[in-house]
Structures are given as structure tokens and as C-alpha cells.
């Protein structure tokens, strides 16, 4: 029986359900010390003095370090030339929370006391928090030597003005895709222990090898003396592939004080120090005909990078511009973007990273076209879809060739599950009743780019490469260990990769162990991001397992005196087809594989292992159709999601239970962006308004609906599994579905757009105007 | 600023059935005491504003956020942490088994707190509705699951009652 496609229960769960997981802060080696940052209280200022004497005098304080102590060390890696981020602020602070000094003490309580006792004086400078302010002619400049706050610009080759004018109608939208915080429930934490053998760094991180590569270079030690371990990781969502100062300082300080140094953020620290996501402003122009055919799309992106450009942060707008046209055949598409620094926390990847922004805008635009033409939003979508026969489909951007999909089928399934016609009829009735709550129906036919990636794609974000590695090794008893380079943070690699390997090898699921997250035991790796786990890493496991099986069959054939071509493998044994009773167990084959005297001449001892690097010829393009029904209380503006239908196409599904979990989690974050969340700063001072979980509204169970999941399947031709990836889908597709539903509910009031998060207050104000 | 001299106080707790008497710094939070002194690291910390519930434990049978309780306030109390649960499902309680069966966890960081909150909920309300479950775990944040599978996990436990639990 095939395990791929089965609802197999997770291998991870028993330890995580009993408190047996190992998260970084759970580790406590002997003589462990604790490091805490003194963060800037100013958003933009010159540091005039730092007085550490009081802190140093406190019992239990081991030391306090500032930028002056780091002159021999480079800035954080991956910086943009001229806009690099120092490990600790040097002379100037550029966002509230930016680490200025680091205290190391005997425990976290003393460290916190000492950090509070460090006296830093600032000379405030003018502050910019939005890209509008930062790009105004008289804006204060964050990096005077760079001369402006604009980091990168990709201009438009053709502004499509003539094409837009030629259409029956045109419309424009100015959309703010607000800044969000990833908020993994485990904040950043790391533990560095530098012994005579070298460094071991435990870090809650999505890409331990990636960190090892840069950390060893930064420390100027060979990689053999720099071991990075990502143990259990409590969520990441993109925020744990960022070069945070603690990842470099904890090792350095451990070497200096010859003791282990642990760093573990409080949530309030995490809210300002962990990278944020999104924060794009879009200016969109669309040209269309009366029948709803979209002819031209101009898509202008402004990306707020925060105070220091992050390598991923710089790439977000690239991905947005690539995916600007979504799942539609639009003859003319032009994009441009610029990236801008401001006095805010740096912006990097957050679940979807550039694609939720694209999907949101194109889906809002399609709804606007429906509104202006008076056509049904489903009809406008159908009219403009790329047809199922048009794949591979070349887009307006050369590297982007959509692999496969069936958008009309996904939408049809979504409408069916939504009972679309029925709900539309109900909406018409309710609109006639001033006492009834407002009903809105929103669709989102989204498409994203995943499966990172083809050679060159992740290199652009500073990674070593874009492949992923797998190594399959058979133990002498016929059990198997699978090492993978991608290191998970909740995705369930131990389970899904064991399913894939089990099918391929004929070894039972319980006899397969998946290992990752340790640079000393796993060959090389890239990491877990960009919905690449199954398509890239899973494909590596599949192929590597197949390679091992080929050799195992040779040994089995030799032992059975049969032809390897006549062998089948299942249930931990090899069988000769058509000869009942002639078989040999995997255990016997594995045992023999280490005994040269029992091997066929072409094989050597230890042959039953394989390692490979899975390259992908192209990206994968997960897609789907989501539908949302909301009701809005006319008195309070409160939104209730009555229905949330999620039809996904992620190609091959390895484990439907886990795939559904990924979709739910992503959708929850998407709904949260649509309704609740948004990082805010006070204009003029740059003080964060949402500096803790009291003010930043992460939804809890009563805030979110039940989901109705559906599925269609078109296989990805670019990897041997046919899988497209599922990690980011929900976050890409959900925001537009929710906002489209709200705008639809408010249509009788002439509302064409409301920016996220659509709070009850925003809706209440709109309703007040029309009372 | 003035630095307060720390004050040490002797406390006695029964944690997961074992009694221990120790001296703690008066300001030590119960969660830090459990994690760092008792070395029961299954109880997690996810915030500093009592919002996330990752630190939920049972104190004299009732769920509390152990980040909002001082260790000295728990003097004389009986504490149950995730490590202290055991039941008929291969050692798991029905709540733990429900989470396993229904994929109620992904990264697992919120999980011990969720399981303790759900355990407490089912002690008070052996047969909660979906809405009651959602409200019952309102003090616990999960960033991975979107909650539906957690709700289903708790329902699984309701449908598989354990002898001695609730009604
Ligand atoms: S750590 Fe206790 S509520 Fe968040
Ligand atoms: S499972 Fe990750 S936070 Fe709940």
C-alpha cells in the first residue's frame, strides 16, 4: 500500500505532546550565561554617550559590550553596499529596538537589570517611518553617504499609457499591503558554546547550513570548527532566516568569556527586533473592455525595507512583480518597483514573501473590473483565466513560466462548495432588508511561485545554492536513516519524508528515521523556505531512495540467485515475482551489504547509501480558488466569517492531514492580515504602537472560523514527485478572499476598497457616513 | 536607578506528584522556576504580557499561566505540567491522543500550554460545544494550526472519555 497520499500520523508528535521536545531555551549547559541587548529607545538618533559603569558593577554581571568593542569584526553579512547593518549600532541608531549594547550575566534576571542600568544618551534626528515620507524631497536621509533613502529601483520599460487608453474603460487602485509581524510563538533564541573543539551554536533557525556558511566566514574560522544545530524550532514563517545580531554575537562572546552564552528574546523584544514582513504600497492601473476582458495592467510597487536592507527584504518586490498578473492572461503587463529604507524594524520574508502582496492586488483589481462592468466577479475571472491547455505558460517576466494548473476547475469547485448561487440570492434578499446584517461574498483565484528553486534563484537571496540535499543510508538491520538538508519548523519532515522513502524502498514507515538540522551530521543543506520542502527536498529523498533500492536489488538478486529485474520489494522484503516462497528480508540484504564475501562483484561493502543534490529545472506554481462569506453587523461594523472555502492545487499530496494543516495555518495568517494585524509606528517619532501582544492582535481560537477544504490536482512536471508545495498557499490566497467579501458587502454604499486590516472601526465609519 | 537586593524565600511545591523544597529569589516567575530549577522544560514561554498561554500549567487542578504567578505564590501548591500527564492511550491522556489523531500541532511550541488548557477545560466542561472549546482555549495562541484541528483534537478527547475524567 502506498504511503504517499495517506493520512499518516506524525512521528514528531509523541515528543512534542509530552514536553519532550528540545527548543533552544530548554538547553542549559553547565556554566551557561545569559545575554540581553540594550535596544535603542529612539527611532533615529546619534548616540552621544554610553555609560556602562553602573551595569558592570552589578553582582553577577560578566560584561557589557558595544560597537566600540567590535571594531575588528565586519558588519552583518548580506548587506546592501553603503547601507550595511552593524552588529551593534555604531554612532547612529535607525530604529527603535536596534541593539546598541549587549550585556552578559549569570542569569536572565540579572541581565535584564543590568541592561536597564546601561545609560545611553541620544541626540535625536528627524524620523521617517513610511515610504511616502522617506521619498519626499526634503526627507531626512538614513545613510547620508548613500544620499537618498532609495536602495534599489527597477524602472518600467513601457508605462502602457497608450494601451490603457485604448481600452473601453480603465480604473486604478492605491493599495497598502500593511506591515505584519510573523510572531512565531517561539521567539529568537540561540546558545553558543565555544570550546577547544570549536563552536557549537544552537539556534532557532530555518536554515542551519546557510547560517553556518556565513557565521564561519564572519568569525573567520574554518567551517569544520563551526557547527550549527537547529533543534526543535517553534515556528518561523520566514522570520528565522534573517541575520540577527545575536547569531554572531553569542558565539563571539562565548569565545571571549569561555563560557556558553544563551540569548532568548522576550516577546516585546521580538516585536521590534525580529524582522517584519509585507509593507508594500501598490499603485495599480487596469484597462479592460466592457465584456470584462482585461487588456493591460500597470503595477507599481514601493517596498518599505525598514532601517537596513535585508537580502530577502530586497527580493520581495521582485517576487511581487513576477506574480503581478496572477492566473490571468493579460496581454500587456508592466511592473516597476523601488525599495526604500525607513526608521523601522527591517523587513524580510514572511509566509508568502512577495506573493501574498501580488495575489491580493490582482484579485482586488479583478473585483474592481467586475464592479465597474457590472459583471459577476466569477464571470470576470473565468473570462480572463489562462486556459488549462496553455501550459507551460510564459508570462511577462522571462524567468516565470507557469508549470500547470486548471483555474476554471478550481473556481468551479470553490463555487460549488460555497453554494455560490444560493448565497448570492440570499445576499439580494438581505440587501432589501435594512434590519439584516450585510452579507458579502469574496473570491480569490490565486497563484504563487514556489518550489525554490531552479539554479540561481536562491543564490539571489544570498544562499549557497538552490538545490536541496538528501542522503539515504541503510543500517545493517534493514532500517533506514534519511538525512535531509532542509530543516523544518513545524512542517513535519520526519513524517512526510519517511512516507516518501518508505514507498520507494519498501521499508516500513516505523523503520525509517529522518534527520536534519545539524551541520555536523547532515551533508550540506539550504533550508526550509519558499514552499520547497516537498517539491525539492522530498524529491531528493525519492530519488536517493530509488538509487539505494537499485543497489539493494542487486544484492537481493545475488542472494536469491535470481535476476534483479524479477524482484519486487514490499513489507521489508524482496520477492521473486511469480515464485512464491522465494524471498529475502531487507534485514538480510542490509546485513549482507556490509559483508564483502556475500556481495556481487560490482558492489563493495557499505554500498547501500546514496547522497544527491536535487536541482529543479523550474519553479512550481501552486494555485487555488478560495471563497469567503462574511456578514457585517450594521451597528458595530464587526465582521463574522460565515464560510471559508479553500480549494487548493498543490500537485501531489504526500499527507493530506499535514497538507490541510499547512493550508489552515496559512489561511489563519491571511485572515489575520485581512482583519486584525498590522505593525504600526507613531509618525514623527517612530515609536512602535504594536510593541507587544497586547497591542498586536494575533487571533486566538474564537476569532477564526472553521474552514471547508477542497482540492483539485494538476501535477508539477518539474520534479519527480509532481508536487508544488503548500506551505505558503493559505497566506497567499486568504487576504483577498476576505477583503473582497467585505468590499462586496459594502457595495451598496459605493465602497470600492478598504485597506487592511479591515477593523470594525473602519467599517463603522463607512456605515456612519451613510446612515 | 536603584538595584534592589534580592530576597530569597523557601518554598515547597508538589510538582507532578513529587514534593520539592527549595529556596528561590522572591521575584522568580513560576514558569522560570519550573523550567530552570525543576528542569521541566515542556512548559514554554511565548510572551511577556500574559497573552499567549504557552506557559499554562495546572495549579491545584486549575489552569494558570505560570508566567503570571510568582514561584513564591505557588508555595504549598500542587502543580501539574505537561510532563505530569499520563493516560490510557499508550501513556497519553485522551487530550494528548486527540492532538495526535487530529493533527492539533505543527511546530509543537504552543502545544503543552494548549494541552493543559484543554485538559482543564474538559475537567470543568466534559462535553463542550465547538464554541465552548474555542472560548475555553481563548487564552492560548497557536501560530501554526489556525485552530480548527486543535478544536477537533479536543472534540476527539470528548468523544473518548477516560475513566475518572469529568462527568
Ligand atoms: S508566556 Fe505566559 S502567557 Fe505567554
Ligand atoms: S503548533 Fe506551532 S504555535 Fe501551535
Automatic annotation (TrEMBL), chain A:
Cited InterPro entries: Ald_Oxase/Xan_DH_a/b, Ald_Oxase/Xan_DH_a/b_sf, Ald_Oxase/xanthine_DH-like, AldOxase/xan_DH_MoCoBD1, AldOxase/xan_DH_MoCoBD2, AldOxase/xan_DH_Mopterin-bd_sf
UniProt KW Oxidoreductase keyword: yes
Gene3D superfamilies registered for this protein in UniProt: Aldehyde oxidase/xanthine dehydrogenase, a/b hammerhead, Aldehyde oxidase/xanthine dehydrogenase, molybdopterin binding domain
Name by which UniProt lists this protein: Unannotated protein
GO molecular function: iron ion binding; oxidoreductase activity
Keyword annotations from UniProtKB, A to Z: Molybdenum, Oxidoreductase
PANTHER family: ALDEHYDE OXIDASE 1-RELATED, XANTHINE DEHYDROGENASE
Domain called Aldehyde oxidase/xanthine dehydrogenase a/b hammerhead: residue spans: 18-126
TrEMBL record, chain B:
GO molecular function: 2 iron, 2 sulfur cluster binding; metal ion binding; oxidoreductase activity
Pfam family, one: Fer2
Annotated coiled-coil segments of the chain: none
Keyword Zinc: no
Keywords: 2Fe-2S, Iron, Iron-sulfur, Metal-binding, Oxidoreductase
UniProt cross-references to InterPro entries, sorted A to Z: 2Fe-2S-bd, 2Fe-2S-bd_dom_sf, 2Fe-2S_ferredoxin-like_sf, 2Fe-2S_ferredoxin-type, Beta-grasp_dom_sf, Diverse_Oxidoreductases
PROSITE patterns: 2FE2S_FER_2 (PS51085)
Keyword Iron found: yes
Residue ranges of domain 2Fe-2S ferredoxin-type in the record: 9-85
Gene3D superfamilies from the UniProt entry: 3.10.20.30, [2Fe-2S]-binding domain
Name the record gives this protein: Unannotated protein
Organism of provenance: freshwater metagenome
Classification lineage: unclassified sequences, metagenomes, ecological metagenomes
Amino acid at each position: 500500500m502506498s504511503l504517499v497520499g495517506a493520512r499518516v500520523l506524525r512521528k514528531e508528535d509523541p515528543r512534542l505532546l509530552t514536553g519532550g521536545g528540545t527548543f533552544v531555551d530548554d538547553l542549559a549547559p553547565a556554566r551557561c550565561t545569559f545575554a540581553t541587548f540594550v535596544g535603542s529607545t529612539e527611532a533615529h538618533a546619534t548616540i552621544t554617550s554610553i555609560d556602562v559603569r553602573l551595569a558592570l558593577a552589578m553582582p553577577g554581571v560578566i560584561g557589557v559590550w558595544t560597537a566600540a568593542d567590535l571594531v575588528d569584526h565586519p558588519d552583518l553579512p548580506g548587506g546592501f553596499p553603503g547601507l550595511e547593518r552593524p552588529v551593534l549600532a555604531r554612532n547612529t541608531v535607525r530604529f527603535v529596538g536596534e541593539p546598541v549594547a549587549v550585556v552578559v550575566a549569570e542569569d536572565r534576571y540579572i541581565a535584564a537589570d543590568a541592561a536597564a542600568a546601561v545609560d545611553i544618551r541620544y541626540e535625536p534626528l528627524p524620523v521617517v517611518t513610511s515610504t511616502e515620507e522617506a521619498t519626499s524631497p526634503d526627507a531626512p536621509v538614513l545613510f547620508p553617504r548613500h544620499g537618498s533613502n532609495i536602495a534599489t529601483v527597477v524602472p518600467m520599460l513601457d508605462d502602457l499609457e497608450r494601451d490603457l487608453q485604448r481600452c473601453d474603460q480603465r480604473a486604478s487602485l492605491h493599495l497598502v499591503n500593511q506591515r505584519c509581524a510573523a510572531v512565531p510563538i517561539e521567539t529568537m533564541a540561540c546558545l553558543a558554546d565555544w570550546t577547544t573543539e570549536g563552536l557549537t551554536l544552537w539556534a532557532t533557525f530555518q536554515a542551519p547550513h546557510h547560517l553556518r556558511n556565513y557565521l564561519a566566514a564572519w568569525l573567520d574560522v574554518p567551517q569544520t570548527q563551526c557547527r550549527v544545530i537547529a533543534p526543535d524550532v517553534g515556528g518561523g514563517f520566514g522570520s528565522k532566516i534573517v541575520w540577527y545580531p545575536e547569531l554572531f554575537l553569542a558565539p563571539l562572546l562565548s569565545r571571549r568569556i569561555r563560557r556558553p552564552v544563551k540569548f532568548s528574546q522576550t516577546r516585546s523584544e521580538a516585536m521590534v527586533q525580529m524582522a517584519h514582513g509585507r509593507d508594500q504600497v501598490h499603485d495599480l492601473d487596469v484597462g479592460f473592455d466592457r465584456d470584462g476582458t482585461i487588456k493591460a495592467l500597470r503595477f507599481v510597487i514601493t517596498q518599505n525595507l525598514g532601517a537596513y536592507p535585508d537580502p530577502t527584504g530586497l527580493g520581495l518586490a521582485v517576487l511581487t512583480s513576477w506574480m503581478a498578473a496572477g492566473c490571468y492572461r493579460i496581454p500587456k503587463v508592466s511592473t516597476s518597483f523601488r525599495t526604500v529604507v525607513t526608521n523601522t524594524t527591517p523587513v524580510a520574508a514572511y509566509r508568502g514573501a512577495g506573493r501574498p502582496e501580488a495575489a491580493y492586488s490582482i484579485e482586488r483589481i479583478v473585483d474592481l473590473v467586475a464592479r465597474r462592468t457590472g459583471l459577476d466577479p466569477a464571470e470576470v475571472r473565468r473570462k480572463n483565466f489562462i486556459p488549462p491547455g496553455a501550459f507551460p505558460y510564459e508570462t511577462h517576466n522571462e524567468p516565470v513560466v507557469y508549470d500547470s494548473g486548471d483555474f476554471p476547475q478550481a473556481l468551479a469547485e470553490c463555487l460549488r462548495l460555497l453554494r455560490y448561487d444560493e448565497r448570492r440570492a440570499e445576499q439580494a434578499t438581505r440587501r432589501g432588508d435594512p434590519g439584516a446584517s450585510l452579507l458579502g461574498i469574496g473570491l480569490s483565484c490565486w497563484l504563487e511561485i514556489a518550489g525554490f528553486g531552479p539554479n540561481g534563484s536562491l543564490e539571489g537571496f544570498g544562499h549557497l545554492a538552490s538545490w536541496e540535499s538528501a542522503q539515504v543510508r541503510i543500517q545493517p538491520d534493514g532500517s533506514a536513516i534519511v538525512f535531509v538538508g532542509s530543516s523544518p519548523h513545524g512542517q513535519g519532515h520526519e513524517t512526510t519524508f519517511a512516507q516518501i522513502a518508505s514507498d520507494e524502498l519498501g521499508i516500513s514507515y516505523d523503520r525509517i528515521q529522518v534527520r536534519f538540522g545539524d551541520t555536523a551530521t547532515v551533508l550540506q543543506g539550504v533550508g526550509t523556505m519558499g514552499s520547497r520542502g516537498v517539491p525539492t527536498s522530498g524529491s531528493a529523498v525519492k530519488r536517493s531512495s530509488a538509487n539505494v533500492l537499485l543497489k539493494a536489488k542487486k544484492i537481493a538478486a545475488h542472494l536469491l540467485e535470481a535476476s534483479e529485474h524479477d524482484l519486487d520489494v514490499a513489507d521489508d522484503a524482496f520477492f521473486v515475482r511469480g515464485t512464491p516462497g522465494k524471498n529475502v528480508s531487507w534485514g538480510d540484504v542490509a546485513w549482507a551489504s556490509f559483508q564483502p564475501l556475500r556481495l556481487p562483484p560490482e558492489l563493495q561493502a557499505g554500498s547501500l547509501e546514496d547522497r544527491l543534490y536535487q536541482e529543479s529545472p523550474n519553479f512550481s506554481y501552486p494555485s487555488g480558488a478560495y471563497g469567503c462569506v462574511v456578514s457585517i453587523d450594521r451597528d458595530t461594523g464587526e465582521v463574522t466569517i460565515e464560510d471559508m472555502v479553500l480549494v487548493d492545487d498543490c500537485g501531489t499530496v504526500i499527507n493530506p492531514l499535514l497538507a490541510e494543516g499547512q493550508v489552515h495555518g496559512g489561511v489563519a495568517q491571511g485572515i489575520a492580515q485581512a482583519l486584525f494585524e498590522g505593525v504600526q509606528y507613531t509618525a514623527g517619532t517612530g515609536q512602535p504602537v504594536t510593541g507587544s501582544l497586547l497591542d498586536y492582535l494575533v487571533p486566538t481560537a474564537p476569532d477564526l472560523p472553521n474552514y471547508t477544504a477542497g482540492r483539485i490536482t494538476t501535477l508539477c512536471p518539474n520534479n519527480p514527485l509532481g508536487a508544488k508545495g503548500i506551505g505558503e498557499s493559505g497566506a497567499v490566497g486568504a487576504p483577498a478572499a476576505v477583503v473582497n467579501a467585505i468590499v462586496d458587502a459594502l457595495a451598496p454604499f459605493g465602497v470600492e476598497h478598504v485597506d487592511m486590516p479591515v477593523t470594525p472601526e473602519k467599517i463603522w465609519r463607512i456605515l456612519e457616513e451613510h446612515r | 536607578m536603584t538595584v534592589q537586593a534580592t530576597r530569597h524565600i523557601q518554598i515547597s511545591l508538589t510538582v507532578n506528584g513529587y514534593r520539592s523544597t527549595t529556596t528561590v529569589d522572591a521575584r522568580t516567575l513560576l514558569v522560570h522556576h519550573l523550567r530552570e530549577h525543576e528542569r521541566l522544560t515542556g512548559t514554554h514561554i511565548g510572551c511577556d504580557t500574559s497573552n499567549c498561554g504557552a506557559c499554562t500549567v495546572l495549579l491545584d487542578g486549575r489552569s494558570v499561566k505560570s508566567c503570571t504567578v510568582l514561584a513564591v505564590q505557588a508555595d504549598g501548591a500542587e502543580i501539574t505540567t505537561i510532563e505530569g500527564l499520563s493516560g490510557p492511550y499508550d501513556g497519553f491522556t485522551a487530550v494528548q491522543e486527540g492532538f495526535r489523531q487530529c493533527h492539533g500541532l505543527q511546530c509543537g511550541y504552543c502545544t503543552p500550554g494548549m494541552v493543559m488548557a484543554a485538559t482543564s477545560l474538559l475537567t470543568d466542561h466534559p462535553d463542550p460545544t465547538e464554541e465552548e472549546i474555542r472560548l475555553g482555549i481563548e487564552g492560548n495562541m497557536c501560530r501554526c494550526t489556525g485552530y480548527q484541528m486543535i478544536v477537533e483534537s479536543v472534540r476527539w478527547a470528548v468523544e473518548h472519555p477516560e475513566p475518572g475524567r469529568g462527568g
